[in-house]
UniProtKB/TrEMBL annotation:
Name listed for the protein in its UniProt record: 8-oxo-dGTP diphosphatase
Domain Nudix hydrolase per the UniProt entry, residue ranges: 199-327
GO terms under biological process: DNA repair; DNA replication
GO terms, molecular function: 8-oxo-7,8-dihydrodeoxyguanosine triphosphate pyrophosphatase activity; 8-oxo-7,8-dihydroguanosine triphosphate pyrophosphatase activity; 8-oxo-dGDP phosphatase activity; 8-oxo-GDP phosphatase activity; acyltransferase activity, transferring groups other than amino-acyl groups; metal ion binding
Family, as annotated: Belongs to the Nudix hydrolase family.
Cofactor(s) this protein requires: Mg(2+)
Top EC group: hydrolase
Catalytic activity: 8-oxo-GTP + H2O = 8-oxo-GMP + diphosphate + H(+); 8-oxo-dGTP + H2O = 8-oxo-dGMP + diphosphate + H(+)
Pfam families registered for this protein in UniProt: Acetyltransf_3 (PF13302), NUDIX_4 (PF14815)
Alphabetical UniProt keywords: DNA damage, DNA repair, DNA replication, Hydrolase, Magnesium, Metal-binding, Mutator protein
Species whose genome carries this gene: Varunaivibrio sulfuroxidans
Domain of life: Bacteria
Enzyme Commission numbers on file: 3.6.1.55
Residues covered by the N-acetyltransferase domain: 22-191
Amino acid sequence: MDYACFTADKGWRGQTLEAPRLRLRAPRTEDARALAELANDPEVARYTTRVPHPYELDDARLFLEQALRRTAGCETGRGYAFAVEKRIGEDLIGVIEIDPQDEGRGGVIGYWLGKSHWGRGFATEALKRVVSFAFTSLGMDWLRAGTHPKNPASARVLEKAGFSFKGMDTAFPGHDKPVEARAYRLARGDWHRREATKPRLLVAAAALLDGDGRVLLCSRPEGKTMAGLWEFPGGKVEGAETPEAALVRELKEELGIDISQSCLAPLTFASHNYDDFHLLMPLYICRAWKGAAHPKEGQRLKWVRPMRLADYPMPPADIPLVALLRDFL
């Protein structure tokens, strides 16, 4: 089933929201079986207000039908529903939703993940991305959410995203009737003030092009954030370094190659708001260096044709650079 009427109002047309380890995308009818398997768990139902138990395939199909229509703007009372999937492997792990309130000036957020994905920071990551979307793309002024009184883990997720506890709510929207919940709220002004305190991180990256026109990608090694994702080689600009000087140093340390600053041609840059910092990353083109690139810090290397770059899961900051690089090449 194809709902093609994603509307342009308030800045959303059904596009995927990227997070460091997750993608938040529009739900699809083919998600039904995976959703049913995840949600048909008494522990999931126990701590949510809208997931019944047992949760069968027909329940998943009904949810998807309603979510698709509401997200597409085909019904009055439009809402926004996202299927949460991992960037590596593209496994579906849960759902996060925004129900607009007060004529779109605010919204109620609800979310759940399959139990096997609890305790790994995925809920916090998804929630922070949706909060940013609500305030910056939808222009909402406030958000609220509720948690089960005996679910302190979900309360911590909300607190990490900046929400404040406002007391007990005995009429919080539930599956088929109001329920008691711990009520949380976050105002856009408070969120903006919190965002303004984030540090800025300057990182320089290079698109190394070999004689066959292939681009070098490096995987982030185990133990680092976003481990397993593929990125353009480079690293943090230290102290009084220029981005070019930092690249010369980083490529020597990471890949064992020698590059002259004069061989670095600036192409574009990324500006991306991560959970704990704001990244600025200029991307340079380089076609000449000395030595053979080899991994020196536990990463994997791949020489990739430009048209295949999008096949490799990347950190959110690197993704928009791919199209620009392909157009240039």
